[in-house]
Amino acid sequence: MLDIHSRKTALLALTLLVPVASIGIIAGLYIAPGGWGQTLSVLCQVWLLVFPIAWSVFVDRKKLSLSLPKRRELVAGAIWGIFMFAVIVGVYSFLGQHWIDPVVAKEKAQQLGINSANIYLIVEAYFVLVNSLIEEFTWRWFVCNKCQILIPGTGAIFLSSLFFTLHHIWVIAAYSDWHAVLLGSLAVFAAGIIWSQCYLTYRSLWSSYISHAIADFALAIIAWQILFN
Question: Contact at 8 Å (CB) between 133 and 209?
Fold first, then answer.
């Protein structure tokens, strides 16, 4: 009986969280870039951080804690991060630059308020250092754990990675054609699997956060080349 209750509770938590990421992206990039669309997008980002905290404290009755990174976690994160950095830059150099229209990318960036190099650097610093940590907290610490309740074992890794990929599909589609959407979605899904496995291995976000930040740094470099070169 307790197991059924736990699964229903986990399913409810995922239902209230997972779609919000896509709603924010669709509103900010497609329906109303700028204005209320961006406001809704920001509110959705806040929800993705606040909801897991509130649910864990008030529903799951868990105490949140922060642990210092261990050497093996830092090493694993750095190795995976460097690997992802090389793959991202390599794939873009050979394929991606033919699939992304710089004109469309610049128009989307301007609609989002990124109209200067300084603003871009501030935004990307946030995404590399802060947003990557929030995503790991949300999608690995919260979503992957809830998926473990629904489908224990390897299935939870694939399910949480699928959830993580869904809203990224909308992001990639806003800037590129279907080739990049397909390849990019597979790449995000694979990264989600790696980061989920890292989290479950160490029961810590440090390794996945470090590799995630390095991967986002590679994307930031590519986006700089597209927007300002």
Answer: yes
